[in-house]
Amino acid sequence: MDWRDAVWLEEADSWIRAHIPGTLIGPIEQPHVDPWATVLRVPTSDGVVWFKANAPIQRFEAALALELAEAAPEVIVELVAVDVERGWLLMRHAGSRLRDLAAGVEQTEHWLAILPRYAELQLSLAPRVERLLALGVPDERLGGLARDLERMLEDHDTLLLGRPDGVTLDELGRLRDAAPMVASMCSDLAAVGIPETIQHDDFHDGQVFVHEGRYRFLDWGDSCVSHPFHTMVVTLRVLAWQQGLPPGGLDLLRFRDAYLEPFAELASPAELRAAFGLAHRTGTIARALAWYRYFVGDPEAERDDTVAYGLKMFLADGPIGSWEP
Length: 325
Known about the structure:
Blueprint: H1 6-19, E1 29-34, E2 37-44, E3 47-54, H2 61-71, E4 79-83, E5 88-92, E6 96-97, H3 98-101, H4 108-125, H5 129-134, H6 145-153, H7 156-159, H8 169-191, E7 197-199, E8 208-211, E9 214-217, E10 224-226, H9 232-243, H10 250-260, H11 269-297, H12 306-316
Antiparallel strand pairs: 1-2, 2-3, 3-5, 4-5, 6-8, 7-10, 8-9
Helix pairs in contact: 4-10, 6-8, 6-11, 8-11, 11-12
């Protein structure tokens, strides 16, 4: 998708002007352009609003945003207008990114507050799973993860098989052999009884916004329906890297335990920690699948090592918070 195409921009501009609060008081700017989405900044007499458009593979975010806003308006950005068919969103200003407010260990207290709230959001959406799937949110539930892995392993182009930073022939063989183990791990994880629900799959300090002491969670284009704990593969990896924390160390496990607090009524602490360990492993495959979905949805997109990276993390089987294969 060419987000800078003059015809497309004119169409977006017309839709924005028809739906903004107040009147336009300055030029519409385009500060973010990625192959999968673009964001426009729109200054109005009623404050800055933001327009987001998604590529077809992530177009479901518009419908999902409406569902999230209904279920948990206190942590979701206020919506001004939504075009579900085109995947367009017009949103109120959500505040400052956490990344811009604090860095490194300065974020610790923020995350200890954020993670339980995010888990509560996931639990509140669990009864809506069928509704989420009907909206087009990708289905990465545990029952199909091993099957999806096997399908992904057949796409040698996306794996960058035998190329620099790609999957090697030896790794491909190990991954194929691991499929039955993945199915068994998913079965064990499901047996703990944690309900599958929405899973952001890219939850880090660039997706959390802060305004007047309140946190709001944005950018759900990578999300899927899966085991909730899969979220923490990305979150803990980023925290370990940013704060210089050793994977599996006590400081990093504080974040795990804060996240697990809202799940306490569903299983014992020991069961939750064991399930978290399993999900950290299966979640690396889920993250690879998130990128795989994008490449399948856009055959013209230039392949990179993101799918291979997630699969190499699975094979490495590192401690919680590992970010290097």
